[in-house]
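note to self: dont lose this again. the chain is below, predicted strucutre after it. 551 aa total, dont forget to put it in the shared folder this time
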Amino acid sequence: MKPEELEVKAAAELAKQQALEARLVCCSSTGCHSSGAADVAARLKADLKAKGLDAKVQVGGTGCMGLCSKGPLVRLTSKAHDDILCSEMTPDLATHLVEEVVAPLANGEPVADPVGVLGAHTVDLAAPFFAKQERVVLSNNGHADPEKLPEYLMHGGYQGLRKALTMTAEEICQEMLASGLRGRGGAGYPTGLKWDFARRVESDVKYVICNGDEGDPGAFMDRSVLEGDPHAVIEGMMIAARAMNATNGVFYIRAEYPLAVERVEKAIRQARVAGLVGRNILNSGWNFDFDVRLGAGAFVCGEETALIASVEGRRGTPRPRPPFPSVKGLWDKPSCVNNVETLANVPRILHNGAAWFAAKGTEKSKGTKVFALTGKIAHNGLVEVPMGITIRELVETIGGGTGTERQVKAVQTGGPSGGMIPASQFDTPISYEHLQQLGSMMGSGGLIVIDDHDSVVELSRFYLDFCVDESCGKCAPCRIGGTQMLHLLDKIVAGEGTAEDIKSIRKIAQAMQRGSLCALGQTAPNPVLSALKHFESEFTERLKKTETEQA
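---
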């Protein structure tokens, strides 16, 4: 397909939607799907068809709209009223919506109070949960259908790739460096620098790899992006390929994400038919295509060298670096491994310019960050906020606090590799540097809230147990040290620990941090150490009582 044909296709889709009287988009992510979103969408379509309104009102799917605890969600857009977000929808409520709001609007009849029709089943889009967000990666969620290429094109899709085709590899790398984009998988390494290293290595074959092996407990950011906007990740990978002169792309997606795999594979097929993937892309003479591989079910395969081993069909274990994957990666060829969210940012940056992205966030942490809010929080779900926002604003204003009479005690960021941050530190800005200063990390974006009824001792034990179970066992500091630490924590939880056990935990943690081969072992002690740093009294309260103390 010629470049101008894509523009025609996007314009046609835009004209089609503008001619509609109303549009209903149903969340089609895993969360809403599991609570009956498909049945709601089917009822909406059936009712509109029965009323002869299916030509005036479109029903489609869309990516995660964020308020997962209130799903299934349906967004109504019409010419006559502001958007309405309907929550906790059922087929019967869908029929009620059609009869009382959608049908009258489609027939040109005014509806005095469309929000009041569903009462408690509507969500205020001006509420802090939505108003405080700044959506870049999630900008298409709630608006575009992830299974329809024309809708992605209508929202500016593949414009970044078209620009990349006019630039040199070095120019693309410099644009990414100027934007300040850092890896969203947790390490926060400058994306443009990583690409530039691979660009400088001479090779007949190079690979760009998407790391979709999201494994942190409570994390679902990457899954939601792959399900809700797969073309953005595809486009980001292709731009990365142009920047490093890569010849092949590989999606490595967690096998437990079947919907994400399905949507990515469908998007690749659509892009191939449209001439956006494959041979002679957009008549540029450039060839590039993709493979999709499923994760092996191991948390350690999120580490880039273990991931590469898994793609090659070997056991997923890390290897020493150097050489880094940018020199010797997949099949011993130069390779770049980028996280899903990182890649989804790329097309927007190239389309809008580095300065546009760099204007968001802080001096050293540019742009926005997607977080999965879970745990003891009123508004469980997916949010995207500018870097530099405080933890308090994210948890209490956007997340709504615990939603109960209990007080927020702490948050765990960064998953098993991160740490606990007490409520007393909630005025800290969210950035790579500030979180590290608190003994935690950004991680991929999971944020778990605990209240004053929860035990940080038991939570830290849970994370350590997870890391011990997921350790590949290749190096002694992680394999042995993790097991020893877990044994000592088990003693403390059972009320049999001593002050010496706490000292031993700190010693073992230091050995793991210094001697482990990969980030799993190096960071596994973080939740325990941060819990000890901020809540040591909770550990000492659990220690074994001496006979004198018992008396």
